[in-house]
């Protein structure tokens, strides 16, 4: 299935006691498909992968795959800071019929570039799964550099990269690598996604799409079609969300926003805590400014 356009980094809805709210998860999947979201990421960073145990992680992936029923691609987050654990998670996601796996760089242990190369090479060879590399140094403490991406790109089942470094310099470096034509470059930074897509990226794995799926889908479609004016107009409406959904660590603000919209309960798991009272008016105003709330 084709992976491009607006790809939501889906939250994992939870009740106040921290248990997964399966009915709300099903409803979110249906809403996203109806609103034009092009693919779903289950249990990425925004899905609280760090606080779900192994069985819960796979249960969420299975549930999203089941509810989606093949209508759009489902990408499972299967990253870990242990190569063996990432292999185990990826194999389990394959068995759950995920269409691809999003594998974040190993966090905390800060491997060098050679370690990153060997990690992803071992994962690709051990599983054969379609793998999207995921670089988000602000969360992991290590940066998958463009030259290492170039070394990994020839591996056939490494199908692309989610790049959360939103700088112009990083975007130009990746686009200048001369990667194979079917290698997907995906933005992981909502605020710069429009420019990235207009420059040649295939889409955006988005936090903002959680609360404004229709607008994000239309913006990404306009950018993919080369309609810079329409993409800019839609992105201007989305800008308050791109900025204010990160006033506290993700996914705290976006889960509060979805709760304020009546789409999920307010649950998170420690060490995450609910959005502070000081930031709630900020996020609510961003929802209003973008037309998500009246």
Description:
With 294 residues, the protein is an alpha/beta fold. 46% of the residues lie in helices and 13% in strands. The protein has 12 helices and 8 strands. Helix 7 links the parallel strand 6 and strand 7. It is globular and about 50 Å long. Belongs to the DapA family. Its EC number is 4.3.3.7.
Number of domains: 1
What is the terminal separation in angstroms?
Answer: 36 Å
Percent of sequence in beta strands: 5-15%
Which blocks of ≥5 consecutive residues have pLDDT under 50?
A: none
The number of distinct β-strands equals 8
CATH superfamily: Aldolase class I
Mean pLDDT: 97
Structural class, by secondary structure, is alpha/beta
Give the biggest beta sheet.
Answer: 8 strands, parallel, barrel
Binding site for pyruvate: 46, 205
Catalytic activity: L-aspartate 4-semialdehyde + pyruvate = (2S,4S)-4-hydroxy-2,3,4,5-tetrahydrodipicolinate + H2O + H(+)
EC number: 4.3.3.7
Site (Part of a proton relay during catalysis): 45, 107-108
């Amino acid at each position: 299935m084709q992976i491009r356009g607006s790809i939501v980094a889906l939250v994992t809805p939870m009740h106040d006691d921290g248990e997964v709210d399966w009915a709300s998860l099903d409803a979110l999947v249906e809403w996203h498909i109806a609103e034009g979201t092009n693919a779903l990421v289950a249990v990425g960073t925004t899905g609280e992968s760090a606080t779900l145990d192994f069985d819960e992680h796979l249960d969420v992936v299975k549930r999203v795959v089941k509810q989606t029923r093949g209508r759009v691609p489902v990408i499972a987050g299967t990253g870990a800071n242990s190569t063996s654990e990432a292999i185990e998670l990826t194999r389990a996601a394959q068995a759950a019929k995920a269409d691809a796996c999003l594998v974040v760089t190993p966090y905390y242990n800060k491997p060098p570039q050679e370690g990153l190369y060997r990690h992803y090479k071992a994962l690709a060879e051990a599983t054969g799964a379609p793998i999207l590399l995921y670089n988000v140094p602000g969360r992991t403490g290590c940066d998958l550099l463009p030259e290492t991406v170039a070394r990994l790109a020839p591996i056939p089942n490494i199908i692309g990269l989610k790049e959360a470094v939103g700088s112009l310099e990083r975007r130009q470096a990746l686009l200048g690598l001369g990667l194979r034509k079917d290698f997907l470059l995906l933005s992981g930074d909502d605020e710069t996604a429009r420019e990235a897509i207009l420059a040649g990226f295939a889409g955006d794995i988005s936090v903002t799409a959680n609360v404004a799926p229709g607008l994000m889908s239309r913006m990404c479609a306009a950018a993919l079609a080369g309609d810079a004016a329409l993409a800019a107009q839609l992105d201007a409406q989305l800008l308050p969300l791109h900025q204010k959904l990160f006033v506290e660590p993700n996914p705290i603000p976006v889960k509060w926003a979805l709760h304020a919209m009546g789409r999920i309960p307010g649950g998170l798991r420690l060490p995450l805590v609910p959005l502070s009272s000081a930031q709630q008016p900020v996020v609510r105003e961003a929802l209003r400014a973008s037309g998500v709330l009246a």
